[in-house]
């Protein structure tokens, strides 16, 4: 059942919130030994919340739009009573969180039921979903393949239908990459749209939080529940609520939709080309727009990510270097050595690049681009061949996502159900226009061009 179907059934008395919760816990127990998507299952808390919802319904109290809907969160979200591990060994020594992250509070205020915390790449510095401490999360369509990262457990849990909604984070592509590999919908909102309060950071100037789901309506339902200003996150917008669910069924015929050209036509496998082609054809999009200096934008995103990440973890690197994933540790050490002049140039270029994209969005409403260059690689795969060049997988999976999150644009990743593995396409909109990206995604879903396939590997 979708989240919307569960909430409707619970509100209508056809299903109890406790029954919905027990069903999710049973699926987790049955399948997570294979998928390895969860690091913590909060069964007692979930049952208590579900019983409280059922009591409110029995008493005739008003309930929220997500009543009884199970959800889970990437383990960099604070969950009261659990240490916020952020995929690391070091953070397990932290005191348990005393309060939930803002987005968990808002989901539960809407009636959703938290059932656990999810596996992720260490400190969110990962595109594969492979964690040296907790083991890799596994792709629900082929468990020998990657989920993508760093929100790999989120992708696996929703793609495997263990929960209808999960929350993750996206700095350089960590919502869009797992969405692509696991065949689900993911929303990276505009930078600053959703509060990051009480979540463990990676790169404060690039970090976004957002939802995964198996349908566009569920994505909008969760996104709308989490909107709103939050003084505890200094980057969070002061804009009021701008609901998207009532708008997603609006026609898209009036929208100006273009295909991202140039850089985004390169470094792609045939399956990525086919996915973008199917989406563009369904939408009648033929215009191609070149995004200037996208390669430089990706390079600048790397510079900012590695230096801000290194600054955040410098004391941990000095005191407990051997407790890091070696691949993460080495990239953070390298980041600590980047000259300040390069960081300054990257930030100046960022301002120029944002202005250039703002000009493009004066003449188009939506850009289409690959989410990943290929379908999910095999677990442990080190290299792949992109345009005739042998390149490391881990560093280059986000080749098409980094130039977009670099300036905080909203994106819906939509799954194209190719055989034998799905792959995602980015629906990119102007700042604060999540409603447009969701509208296009919904139209594609209704046409049957994009959909979340049933898990085939479990």
Briefly summarize what is shown.
The protein is of the alpha/beta class and 458 residues long.
What is the topology?
Layout (H helix, E strand, L loop, with lengths): L2 H9 L5 H19 L2 E4 L1 H16 L11 E5 L27 H8 L3 E6 L33 H8 L5 E6 L5 H7 L2 E4 L19 E6 L2 H11 L30 E5 L8 H14 L4 E3 L3 H27 L5 H11 L3 H21 L5 E5 L12 E4 L2 E4 H4 L5 H4 L5 E6 L6 E7 L4 H14 L11
Parallel strand pairs: 2-3, 2-4, 7-8, 7-9
Antiparallel strand pairs: 1-3, 4-6, 5-6, 5-12, 9-13, 10-11, 12-13
Helix pairs in contact: 2-3, 5-6, 7-14, 9-10, 9-11
Biggest sheet strand order reads 1-3-2-4-6-5-12-13-9-7-8
**SS summary, helix count:** 14
CATH class: Alpha Beta
- Biggest beta sheet summary: 11 strands, mixed
The proportion of residues in beta strands is: 5-15%
Mean pLDDT: 98
- The helical percent reads 25-40%
CATH topology: Amidase signature (AS) enzymes
Number of strands: 13
CATH superfamily: Amidase signature (AS) domain
Counted up, domains total 1
- CATH second-level architecture: Alpha-Beta Complex
Uncertain segments = none
H and E string: HHEHEHEHEHEEHEHEHHHEEEHHEEH
């Amino acid at each position: 059942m979708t989240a919307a179907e569960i909430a409707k059934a619970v509100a209508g008395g056809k299903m109890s919130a406790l029954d919905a919760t027990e069903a999710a816990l049973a699926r987790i127990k049955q399948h997570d030994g294979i998928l390895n998507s969860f690091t913590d299952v909060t069964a007692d808390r979930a049952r208590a919340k579900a019983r409280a919802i059922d009591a409110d319904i029995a008493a005739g109290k008003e309930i929220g739009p997500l009543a009884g809907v199970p959800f889970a969160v990437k383990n960099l979200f604070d969950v009261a009573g659990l240490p916020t591990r952020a995929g690391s060994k070091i953070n397990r020594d932290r005191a348990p969180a005393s309060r939930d992250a803002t987005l968990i509070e808002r989901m539960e205020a809407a009636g959703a039921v938290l059932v656990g915390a999810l596996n992720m790449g260490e400190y969110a510095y990962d595109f594969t979903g492979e964690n040296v401490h907790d083991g890799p999360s596994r792709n629900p369509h082929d468990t020998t393949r990657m989920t993508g990262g760093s929100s790999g457990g989120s992708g696996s849990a929703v793609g495997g239908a263990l929960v209808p909604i999960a929350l993750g984070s996206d700095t350089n592509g960590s919502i869009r990459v797992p969405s692509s590999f696991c065949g689900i919908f993911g929303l990276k909102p505009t930078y600053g749209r959703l509060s990051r309060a009480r979540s463990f950071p990676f790169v404060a100037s690039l970090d976004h939080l957002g939802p995964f789901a198996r349908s566009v309506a569920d994505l909008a339902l969760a996104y709308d529940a989490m909107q709103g200003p939050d003084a505890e996150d200094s980057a969070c917008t002061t804009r009021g609520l701008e609901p998207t669910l009532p708008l997603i069924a609006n026609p898209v015929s009036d929208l100006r939709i273009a295909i991202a050209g140039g850089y985004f036509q390169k470094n792609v496998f045939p399956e990525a080309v086919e996915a973008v082609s199917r989406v563009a054809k369904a939408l009648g999009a033929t215009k191609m727009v070149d995004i200037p200096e996208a390669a430089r934008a990706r390079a600048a995103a790397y510079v900012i990510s590695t230096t801000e990440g290194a600054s955040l973890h410098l004391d941990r690197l000095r005191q407990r270097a051997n407790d890091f994933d070696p691949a993460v540790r080495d990239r953070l050490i390298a980041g600590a050595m980047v000259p300040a002049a390069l960081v300054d140039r990257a930030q100046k270029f960022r301002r120029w690049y944002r202005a250039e994209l703002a000009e493009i969005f004066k003449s188009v409403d939506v850009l289409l681009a690959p989410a990943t260059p290929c379908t999910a690689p095999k677990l442990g795969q080190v290299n792949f061949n992109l345009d005739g060049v042998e390149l490391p997988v881990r560093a280059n999976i986000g080749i098409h996502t980094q130039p977009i999150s670099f300036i905080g644009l909203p994106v819906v990743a939509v799954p194209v159900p190719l055989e034998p593995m799905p792959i995602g396409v980015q629906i990119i909109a102007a700042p604060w226009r999540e409603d447009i990206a969701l509208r296009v995604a919904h139209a594609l879903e209704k046409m049957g061009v994009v959909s979340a396939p049933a898990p085939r590997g479990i």
